[in-house]
Amino acid sequence: MGVRSLACRVDLRDIGSIERCVNDTVATFGRIDIVINNASALWWHTMEGTPMKKYDLIMDVNARGSFCLTKLCIPYMVEQGWGRVISMSGPIDHIKKLKGKVAYSISKLGMTITALGAAEEHPGIISGNTLWPATVIESYASKNFKLGMPKLWRKATIIADATAAIICEDTSFSGNMLIDDEYLRSKGFTDEDFVQYRYDPTFEPPRLLAKAGSFMIRRGNVKKLKKDMNKDGKAIKRSKL
């Protein structure tokens, strides 16, 4: 597309790996303007069904990894007097039904607090916001974990467009926990505009946020997915997947 880019292989469980990414970015571009905490590990199980090894994994990737990356980038943003932090995590007030997602919710809230906290500690310099999809988004996670039929998905471009718009907001636009389609509507999007984001051009995906907690299927290990889905067949039917 005619722009300069840099790809860095990063393991968010390894501080050294994150440090190399930040250092290579600064060495290549001379600055860091935007941090988007997008990477996330998935584990949807009951508390007693969550091995501590899995708990540690999602905490290391989701909460600790996003905290570490943001922490290392903040000094560059402060020095230049401008920065944006966006975490792909849900609003605090949407955590109402925790059954089967306690550990995952704790880790995602860590990502939310990281973005909001960075902004509160550096007001007028860094804006911190979170972004969360109203529907299932086409991704390797939705495909590998079979999160419903493809017609229930929206394309990832809705997240990309919302993210770009947030970045362009004034620094005073901060501390917001946003839902992708709600935010875009606030920018003037209409029902017709959202048609472009349908994975299936002929079907409008349902907004899952309207039915908080509808995903009660235990998932987190692709190798055991078939077994989990067979065991939780009733939950699959309830979710109409």
Describe the structure.
This protein is an alpha/beta fold and 241 residues long. It has a domain of 160 residues: Rossmann fold, CATH 3.40.50. The protein contains nine helices and six strands; from the N terminus they run αβαβαββαβαβαααα. It has a four-stranded parallel β-sheet, sandwiched between helices. Strand 1, helix 2 and strand 2 form a beta-alpha-beta unit. Helix 1 packs parallel to helix 2. The C terminus is likely disordered.
Write a concise synopsis of the structure shown.
By secondary structure, the protein is of the alpha/beta class.
Helix tally? Answer: 9
Please mark out the parts with pLDDT under 50 across 5 or more consecutive residues, or reply none.
210-216, 233-241
Q: Within the largest sheet, what's the order of strands? A: 1-2-3-6
Helix-strand string: HEHEHEEHEHEHHHH
CATH architecture of the domain at 15-141 and 156-188: 3-Layer(aba) Sandwich
CATH superfamily of the domain at 15-141 and 156-188: NAD(P)-binding Rossmann-like Domain
Reported by name, the CATH topology of the domain at 15-141 and 156-188 is Rossmann fold
Mean pLDDT metric: 89
Distance between the termini: 37 Å
In percent, how helical is the residue content?
40-55%
How many β-strand runs?
Answer: 6
Q: Using the alpha-carbon principal axes, give the shape.
A: globular
CATH class of the domain at 15-141 and 156-188: Alpha Beta
| Classification by helices and strands | alpha/beta
Topology:
Layout: H1 15-29, E1 34-37, H2 52-80, E2 83-87, H3 102-121, E3 126-132, E4 136-137, H4 140-144, E5 153-154, H5 157-167, E6 177-179, H6 180-186, H7 191-194, H8 225-231, H9 233-238
Helix pairs in contact: 1-2, 2-3, 5-6
